[in-house]
Specification:
The protein has ten helices and no strands. It is mostly helical. It has two domains: 124 residues, no CATH class; 154 residues, no CATH class. The longest helix is centred in the N-terminal third of the chain and has 33 residues. It binds zinc ion (ZN).
């Protein structure tokens, strides 16, 4: 592999076979399809559990049942309507029964997961580390999208991120040694806890959700303690720019809140993938 940016970021880019790329890309489409289910159902399951008396609750469901249906007309989808991306294109982005538009999120998440899985293969080559990196990418995508849509970062996802990250380090299947991974998780949670405590003490308002703390703990387990500071800086600066732009466009809610999870997730992915750290 010749030296250069591609060789540094994606060292296995030329070594992997077309078949391996195809397998990872298709697996990405299928898992992406499942992530769409998670993104749609998990927050509704949490809200139904925590606020059972709320009117207009979605019908009771879990990640398995009922089978996939149009959220508008409840029509149950046939197998050929569940093929990632192709079904969306085939139906021209509309439900075949009520003609209601299908959210562009569905094909987009499927395609994005497919691209992320392929990148993991190019980065790590065929093996368990690549599969774990796929898991990392998929969980982050689900968390970022769920937070952006609902302001929720489900424990089920942040805890899976944390524990799989620690186990991967313990088994030397990740680029981060276990000690740095553990320290990353502890300090990730601790730093944001201090920041949110200070913010609350100074302004009397709650600045950050518990989910953000747990997400940074999970990310810390993957990227290690030496990447935490660059990660937080990246997330804060990009989040701040986004917040200012939204405020200028008058699209920030009354309380001025916006989801911080997507910025943590994207910055965490960048640090993990590009190896951004303080170089200690
Ligand atoms: Zn429909």
């Amino acid at each position: 592999m010749p030296p250069g940016a591609m060789g540094w970021v994606l060292p296995h880019f030329e070594a992997v076979t077309s078949l391996q790329i195809a397998v990872f890309a298709v697996a990405g489409l299928v898992i992406g399809s499942f992530l769409n289910v998670v993104i749609y159902r998990l927050p509704r399951m949490i809200l139904a559990h925590e606020l059972p008396d709320l009117p207009n609750q979605a019908p009771a469901f879990n990640l398995n049942t009922p089978s996939s249906h149009c959220p508008h007309c409840q029509y149950r989808l046939a197998w050929f309507e569940l093929v990632p991306v192709l079904s969306y294109l085939g139906a021209l982005g509309h439900c075949r029964h009520c003609q209601h538009r299908i959210a562009w999120r569905y094909p987009f998440v499927e395609l994005l997961t497919s691209v992320l899985f392929s990148l993991c293969l190019f980065k790590f080559g065929l093996g368990l580390p690549a599969v774990l990196a796929c898991f990392f990418s998929a969980i982050l995508l689900a968390l970022a999208w769920t937070d952006a849509e609902t302001f929720l970062l489900p424990d089920a996802l942040t805890q899976a991120l944390l524990w799989v990250g620690l186990v991967a380090s313990a088994m030397s299947l990740s680029l981060t040694p276990l000690v740095e991974s553990l320290a990353g998780a502890v300090f990730g949670y601790g730093i944001l806890w201090v920041v949110s405590w200070l913010f609350q003490a100074l302004t009397g308002k709650e600045g950050m959700g518990q989910g953000d703390l747990k997400l940074l703990a999970g990310l810390g387990a993957w990227v290690g303690i030496w990447s935490l500071l660059p990660l937080i800086l990246l997330a804060s600066v990009s989040g701040l720019i986004f917040g200012v732009i939204q405020k200028m466009r008058g699209q920030l809610g009354d309380n001025g809140h916006f989801a911080f999870g997507p910025f943590l997730a994207i910055s965490g992915f960048a640090c993990f993938f590009l190896g951004i750290s303080m170089g200690v």
